[in-house]
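hey m, so remember when u said the tokens were messed up on ur end? i reran from scratch. heres the input so u can diff it against urs
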Amino acid sequence: MDLEKNANIDGDLANTRDHRRESIESFNINTHEDAETSIARTKPKDANFLTPIHTTRSRSSVRSQRSYAGADGYTHFEHDEQHASPQPKNEDDEKNGTPPTDDHDLKAFEVRWDGPDDPMNPKSAAWAPYWRKWTIVILGSASSMCVTFGSALYTSAYGGIEREFGISRLAATVGLSIFVCGLGLGPMFLSPLSEFYGRRPIYLCAFGMYFIWLIPCALANNLATMLVARFLDGLAGSAFLSVAGGTVGDTFPKEKLSMPMMIYSAAPFCGPLLGPVVGNFIASYLNWRWCFYVLMMWAGVNWLLLFFFVPETYSPVLLRRKARQLRKETGDERWKAPIEMLNKSVTKTVMWSCIRPFQLLVLEVGRYHEHDCSDI
């Protein structure tokens, strides 16, 4: 009897489990069908209908100029349809049914590199051997170190400047501060100028002015002359702290960029390290003005080496040269480089470059201030 009762109980439990399983499966099926039915009810009849997405803007955002940079952080001016110059419409072509010139025609005559081994491409091995590329890196690094060396070398002349000009140590220190101020302001207009005219003109003009403004520093007879010359000297020398890194990125492919970039990045830090050591040695045996005379010798030799051994490396400018050569050889004026298809004003670009740092400073400070006040 007990065995029969246990068997009946097991059978009832099995039937209960089967019933529950069927109920769960039927519930899932009905739920899925109800979901499909509700989706079908809400789905519009027009399959091409798309629900508009409402974009929101941060209260701290302000209209600014868009910047275009490649994956390596230095190549610039990627061409797209927003930046192509609008082509004039031809009424005769419209009447005859001929489609107007569009982006496909622009792309067909857009000048690009002929593969990775293009001899005009500075990243290719055919452009220059590696020893020549390393020469460019070393000269750019030496120029950066020369600029920062001149910043710290000034501290060795404090004693002589105080005695000769009859000023305090605090007044003499202004010459160091104002030089660093020039280093900070110069890249705001030198960097965008290099995007239009290339690296080499900026190097030669900026470092030439750096050499010239060392002359009044060495011959100054009052503090005002020294301060003005020091500010303009830092302004001109800042090119090698902002643009020279682009030359390193121009000449080496990504897989070989780490070592030359490390050398260039270390050079500006070596200048402040060596400046006081060399300056104190000179001031101990010679007049304080010889600190600037020695710096002038270094800057003059460095400028000559830049002139003879550092060519243009900026790809958009080199592509523009290639486009001019193609137009001259073929007589077809449709060949254009990407940089020639842009509707960008030099003045407007420089102005936005000068405004953007202060814009970010003011807006970010305001945003964090608003966030802190909301937490109170």
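this time it looks ok to me. Residues 1-7, 31-49, 54-62, 67-101 have pLDDT under 50 and may be disordered. if urs says something different then somethings off w ur setup not the seq
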